[in-house]
Amino acid sequence: MTIEGRDYNIYVGKEELSLLPALLLPYKKVMIVTDENVAPLYLEGLKRELNDACEVHSHVICAGERSKCVKVYLEIVNDMLDSNFTRSDAVVALGGGVVGDLAGFVSATYMRGIDYFQIPTSLLAMIDSSIGSKTGIDLERGKNLIGSFYSPKAVFIDTNRLMTLPREQIRAGLGEGVKYACLMGGEAFDMLERGLSDYDDFVRRCVEYKLGVVEGDMREAGLRRLLNLGHTLAHAIEAKKKFEIEHGVAVGMGIYFMAKAANANGELCQSELERVVKLLEKYELLERISEIDVSELFSFLRADKKSYGDGIYAVKLEKIGQCRVEKMSFEQFEDYVRGGCGR
Predict the structure, then answer these.
(1) Per residue in 198-224, pLDDT tens?
(2) Any catalytic annotation for residue 220?
(3) For 8-22, 61-75, 78-92, 316-330, which range has the lowest pLDDT when averaged over its residues?
(4) What's this model's pTM, rounded to 2 decimal places?
(5) Do 177 and 159 belong together in one domain?
(6) 305 in catalytic set
């Protein structure tokens, strides 16, 4: 199945990856960026598929958020320089969100920009990070503080790859999945409540929803801010915990705190709060919630890339399937969240 975007297409299905070699024929060389978990599963097979199309190189990074840093970014860039990559060559991101963000940022900045392709292998990357053209790396002071908006030439999604993922990675992806369910409501939320036996339909719904949002607001000046539901607090949680908590799990915690705050402030009814909390618990996203002291998170907000001047754009959950962005000062946001958390 092909989901046509304004700037690039998203190919969903097991057979769709067979289209990639033809798309790479215009390039002399390609650098596959992947990590140590994905490489043993898929790297050699992908190399064999691409060898007839172009000269194939690879760079394998350590798995995990800590690799999304300046040091690893420069290692990839220097590897490409040593292999004489030019602006007429390309990059392929084979992996989860860390690989996609990092390889995308390399592509956006190497010689002022070269083409790249996304092959997401994690649920989180399939439904979220591979879509929307955001690239970036982390600093010690926060996530994605260096980055750019830079679109891939194409995205290839094969949900069969989810069969090789450990339980923790599926859980992390479902943190973003709950976010989309809260934004879309209706059947998307119902599907997660029932339990996913087949990921294809849910992945397609998430991809189509995100693509529709970002194409109307590529640089996050308005509507796209809705996609940050739970993220402001999630990024603070990640920074506080030194990235020991997976991004998707932190997003689930962020949604929990925002839902509690919305209920305490009269914006989300009790029955819908209970549905949201039950869903987060169902997918084991709140197992470490007792470790989080909300009062310790607010100091990280000013460094968050989503902040503006003296405040932030908060995404409020008014009902399942209905969220709203509100511009708030840091003090207003802190009072809002504290009201729901009793701290």
Answers:
(1) 788 899 999 999 988 888 877 777 788
(2) yes
(3) 8-22
(4) 0.86
(5) no
(6) no
Give the domain extent around 59: 2-163
CATH code of 288's domain: 1.20.1090.10
Q: Is 59 considered catalytic here?
A: no
Angle at 195 between CA 317 and CA 184, to 5 degrees: 30
- Which residue type is seen at 88? S
pLDDT (tens digit per residue) in 93-150: 999 999 999 999 999 999 999 999 999 999 999 999 999 899 999 988 778 889 999 9
253 and 328 assigned to the same domain: yes
Q: Would you call 231 a catalytic residue per the annotation?
A: yes
Specify whether 112 is catalytic. Answer: yes
End residue of a domain, out of 107, 134, 163: 163
Match 């590897």 to its residue by tokens. 79
Judge whether 15 counts as a catalytic residue. Answer: no
Q: How many domains are there within the chain?
A: 2
134 given a catalytic annotation:
yes
The reply to whether 246 and 332 lie within a common domain is yes
Catalytic: which of 4, 15, 71, 112? 112
From the list 128, 79, 70, 80, the residue with the least C-alpha distance to 102 is 70
Q: Say yes or no: 254 and 149 in one domain.
A: no
- The whole-angstrom separation of Cα 190 and Cα 181 is 8
Assess contact for 223 and 216: CB atoms under 8 A: yes
Per the annotation, the verdict on 238 as an active-site residue is no
Kindly state the average pLDDT of the residues 233-238: 92
The residue from 228, 240, 267, 272 that is catalytic is 228
